Amino acid sequence: MGELKPTRQVTIEGGASGTSGFATTKLEALLAWARKWSLFKYPFVTACCGMEFMALTSPRFDGSARFGAEAPRFSPRQSDLLWVVGTISQRQAPVLKRIYEQMMEPKWVLAFGTCASCGGFYDNYATVPGIDKIIPCDVYVPGCPPRPEAVLDGLMLLQDKIQRGATGDRRPGIVKPREDPVRDLVQLRKKSSLEQGNS
Amino acid sequence: MSQRVLETLKEKFGDAVLETHSHLGDETAVVSPERWKEIARFLRDDPSMAFDMAVDLCAVDYPDRTPRFEVVLHLYSISKRHRLRLKARVGDAEGEKAEIDTLTDVWVGLNWFERETYDLMGITFKGHPDLRRILLYPEFEGHPLRKDYPANKAQPLVPYRTEEEAGVPLDKLAPFGPDEGMPFGRRVFAVDRGES
Fold this sequence. Notes:
By secondary structure, chain A is α/β, with parallel strands linked by helices. Helices cover 40% and strands 10% of the residues of chain A.
């Protein structure tokens, strides 16, 4: 369990450029790799998305254990991934901000569901229009609630972002909204009715 | 069903009962706000009324009417099995003087209902032991369920981050509409109409 000695341990012999600058980058990559596979989550569950969050963590999808993010820590000081699951009301905003501030660096935030991402269909006196108005957010997962697959996508986007590190692309990851299957069905039906009409 | 209750009320209080209304077994009495508590006490204590349960208390805002607000009280009698809806009209056009007597000393359970009505609609209940906001925070100004409160006006407790602070355009982050994932965005006929 000794300390990592960057210059000696990660320099690649015979590499194209065996300089120390090259070695430092590799240490970052190693650290990022360790971080992205050992996320400790803090579930900030406020609304109905919590049910989908439970479905995600249960054995069928096994959503977080496969990514090394199984253990929840109910203390923000011990966790590095904040899951904001559900609607955040104006009255709750100071609490969320404080939880975020109590977390240790490096830390990441995942907005679970449309309400956490942009306020959802609530556009009124009571609801915060997206948690990014209060705290920085790294990944947005749309859906009301999102399918577990969408959350897994989001988790992988976050891993990508962690791997890119502090110098890489810092823009937030956004899970692509689900395609509407009804649209295809309607087109199919139209097409078949047209063919029948022609024949 | 509880027509008898309305008749008793009219008989006993006369002019204080401004109007009554019956529809499909729902009986409503609009009473004068000055005698609100007296009528409530009678409804609870009289053995033939025996309204021992206050189901709900809320208020409705009719901006075009004077008096502007209607305080609505729903009552149920567990022993007699009859219901009554009691209304009182208060407040002027600007929403001032929206005052009515508290009923917390008649039905203790109305305490929080009155606080909620005060919080969201701004009806003052005279004599209430603890008339504070119950759902919103003390810093909130105004009463959001009044019709003259702007529908999407928020009063944030935490100042929002600016775009300079965030380094990214904040309103463009989520590339999906607020109804993403909602069933009403996925109707077949809506798609049909859009494409034809």
